[in-house]
Amino acid sequence: MPDYFVYGGAAAFLAAIATLAFALATRKRTSNRIVDEARTRADSLLLDAKGQVDVVIKEARLEGREQLQADRTAFEEEARERRQQLLASESRLHEREEALERRVSKSDERERKLNRYEKRLTGMERDVNLLRDEAAVHRDEAVTQLERVSSYNRDDARAQLVRVMAREAREEGSRVAEKIVNKAKNTAALEAQRLIALAIQRCASNHVAENTVSVVALPSDDMKGRVIGREGRNIRSFEMMAGVNLIVDDTPEAVLISSFDPYRREIAKLALERLVADGRIHPARIEEVVERVRSEIEEQTTVDGTAAAAEAGVHDLHPELNRLLGMLKYRTSYGQNVLHHSVEVATITGIMAAELGGEEAIGRRGGLLHDIGKAIDQEVEGTHLQIGIDLLRKYGEADEVIQAMEAHHFDVEPATVEAVLVQAADALSAARPGARRDMLETYVKRLEKLEHIADSFRGVAKAYAIQAGRELRIIVEPSKVSDDESLWLSRDIANRIEREVQYPGEIKVTVIRETRAVEVAH
């Protein structure tokens, strides 16, 4: 290897070492300068920190002094208020003590006065006892002298006084009772008359007592022979199928159908009219027509019942109840059609319930269904009232409606206003002129019963039932019955009539007491 390469490499190496030494020297100087600058900055920061700490300490001390001063001021203010409160409480307590002392002083003074009064009352009581004893002695002497003079002992005089006072009290009670009753009657009668007149006027239904005979017109008298048939077979067949009596007499161009059952009589009338119109009258044809008419009538009963319920303003009845209502069209009570009577009772009850503020719907329903048991009372055992109750319960009627229905014959006590109104409406409908036809025997028995009840009372001289049993006039013996006792007698007789007699409407009881002195001058 040539020498210039050796010398060149050594020079390069030396140059590198020299460069490295220079770089190290330069870095050292730079590091020393950075360290000096850091020390200088640290000293400056330390000085600044010390200054800030001194400032914070000074501010904290200042704030502590201010807070301490504020707390001291607040404490002193609170202490001053507490002191004032204590002073006020002490003042009130002192006033109470003074008031208590005054009360104690007054109590002591009152006690002294009471003691003086007690001593005085003790003395007065002693004097009163002495006077009472002296009065008792004088009273016994006076009673003994009075008994000797009047010939009455003490028990007899007491009994006589009791009788006199009782008679005076009864007379006074009679006068007061008469005033009260008259006042109540005047107001009640006017209000009742207004309600009844309003109900009847708005009801405005016509009633005519139904007969037990129906008339079928014939086109000619020759038709009578065809109705009778050969040897009377047609008339016998018709009577057997329809359950009625057929009367063919001298009445021109007419045949009479007689039956106490309106349902059968209606079937017979329609069947005979059809047979006469058709002209073919023989037993087979009679049976066919009667059965057809009976089926049509049964269907018509539901329609009639629904129409009657609508007329009475009653809705949502069970279909079976509608059918039973329709059957009432063919029932009568003393000649009055029961269905028409039920509709009228429902209407009158509803009007009066509305006027009195009662339940109009319940009143109308109870009035319409009050005689529903009469539809099947010929087929079912029991009274029409019990049958009706069972029917209404069976078909889900409300208890209020059942109560109104079962009370209409006074068998049970009415519990609602509607029940009382159904009773009144039932009596109004039955008592209207022309509504019912009473049997003579029943009428006579009722009059005799009224007179017998009146005659059973003490002091009654004679009793007369007048105005078709609407009034009972009673003549009493003036020596046995006083004027005041007449009032009680009329009330007692009226109460007994209400309990024992069945009658439509009302019965007026009039007691007449008259004293006559008659002398003849000769």
Describe the structure.
The protein has about 525 residues and is mostly helical. Among the domains are: about 155-205; about 215-430, Ribosomal Protein S8, Chain: A, domain 1, CATH 3.30.1370.10; about 440-510, 2-Layer Sandwich (GMP Synthetase, Chain A, domain 3). The protein has helices at about 5-150, 155-205, 220-230, 235-240, 260-280, 285-310, 320-325, 340-355, 360-370, 385-395, 400-405, 415-430, 440-455, 485-500; strands at about 215, 245, 255-260, 330-335, 335, 460-465, 470-475, 510. The protein has a three-stranded antiparallel sheet with strand order 1-3-2, with helices on one face. Strand 4 and strand 5 (about 335) form a beta hairpin. The chain is flat, with a radius of gyration of 59 Å.
Name some characteristics of this structure:
flat; 7% strand; 14 helices; mainly alpha; single chain; 522 residues; GMP Synthetase, Chain A, domain 3; 70% helix; three-stranded antiparallel β-sheet; Ribosomal Protein S8, Chain: A, domain 1; three-stranded mixed β-sheet
Give the topology:
Blueprint (H helix, E strand, L loop, with lengths): L2 H148 L3 H50 L9 E5 L4 H7 L4 H10 L2 E3 L6 E5 L3 H17 L4 H30 L6 H9 L4 E2 L2 E2 H19 L3 H9 L15 H11 L4 H8 L10 H15 L8 H16 L4 E7 L4 E6 L6 H18 L7 E5 L10
Parallel strand pairs: 7-8
Antiparallel strand pairs: 1-3, 2-3, 4-5, 6-7
Low-confidence stretches: none
Helix count from the secondary structure assignment: 14
Q: What fold name stands as the CATH topology of the domain at 213-431?
A: Ribosomal Protein S8, Chain: A, domain 1
CATH class of the domain at 213-431: Alpha Beta
Number of strands: 8
- Average pLDDT reading: 80
- The H/E string reads HHEHHEEHHHEEHHHHHHEEHE
Strand content: 5-15%
CATH superfamily of the domain at 213-431: K Homology domain, type 1
Helix/strand/pairing category:
mainly alpha
User: Main beta sheet: strand number and arrangement?
Assistant: 3 strands, antiparallel
Write out the strand line-up for the largest beta sheet, numbering strands in chain order.
Answer: 1-3-2
Helix-residue proportion: over 70%
- CATH architectural grouping of the domain at 213-431: 2-Layer Sandwich
Terminal Cα span: 218 Å
| Computed Rg | 59 Å
The backbone outline, from C-alpha atoms, is flat
